[in-house]
Amino acid sequence: MRAVLQRVSSASVTVDGQVVAAIDHGLVVLVGVTHADGATQADWLAQKIAGLRIFEDEAGKFNRSLLDAGGSALVVSQFTLYADARKGRRPAFVDAARPEVAEPLIEYFCGRLRAHGVPVQTGVFGARMLVAIHNQGPVTIILDAPA
Q: Which domains does the chain have, with CATH numbers?
């Protein structure tokens, strides 16, 4: 599993003109799933995200986790994180897991984040989403779960 984390002051997901999810302070978590991923990768990623110290303390140092900062997570499935654009001009997505594999694993991942105490909102799997991200910092971190 691969995740792109963006620390945000606010974020939302709109589908067909309707806001389906929104958070204030926290993280947008763009998540991609590949064929070899399973519960082990989802567990690792959820624990890492809940405890990763990328929020500033009073001294301006990255000493606070999402939990410490009282933030939420907006999780958005994004198969394009496994795009292969090394050849040609059109990316290939053969490394991205099929929807019937990816969707339940992303739901499991969200459940694990919640189990760590993180309030979670989600986009709509497979929908065309408009994601509004107010990146704070900016802070953007890429995480790849170990195989």
A: 2-144 (3.50.80.10)
